[in-house]
Design goal:
The chain is built from seven helices and no strands. It has helices at residues 8-23, 30-40, 46-50, 69-85, 91-102, 105-126, 132-140. Helix 1 (8-23) packs across helix 2, helix 4 (69-85) packs across helix 5 and helix 5 packs across helix 6 (105-126). The chain is globular and about 40 Å long.
Length: 142
């Protein structure tokens, strides 16, 4: 079962709704709490999520030198899920070692997300599933 909507706009509204519920002190679901935790460490996205819904329709392109905030926050969530479930096997240990060395969870997640993004890009380029061994090896080199 996919807990994230397949529709880009619905996914973006999910982030905005979780953040708005948090700001209003309303009850939030566990997934919303995870989203809020990631949004909290990204104050540069607060205005976007607090603004009008039409702001969520924007396209952010690498060609324009822009980072897609929803992709960025989604990568944080993906890395956290991988670490929590230790999938691929060994990633939780790698994360613990990076955290001990760097001391900053946010920086560790950014570094790990770079490796995840590269693994996903390579898999898409080749039309294959991501190579977990190559991904773990890239993480070990951090």
């Amino acid at each position: 079962m996919n807990v994230f909507p397949d529709d880009r706009n619905a996914l973006r509204r999910m982030y905005a709704d979780a953040w708005r519920r948090h700001l209003r002190g309303m009850p939030i679901e566990p997934l919303q709490a995870q989203i809020v935790d990631v949004v909290t460490i990204h104050p540069e996205y607060h205005g976007l999520l607090e603004g009008p819904d039409d702001a969520l329709q924007a396209d952010w392109t690498p060609e324009g030198g822009q980072t897609n905030p929803f992709l960025h926050m989604g990568m944080h969530l993906a890395v956290r899920e991988q670490v929590m479930t230790d999938r691929p096997a060994g990633i939780a240990e790698i994360h613990a070692g990076l955290l001990a060395r760097l001391g900053d969870r946010h920086s560790v997640e950014h570094a790990m997300a770079e490796c995840l993004g590269a693994a996903l890009w390579e898999a898409q380029r080749r039309g294959l599933i991501p190579d977990e061994r190559a991904y773990l090896e890239a993480l070990r080199r951090l």
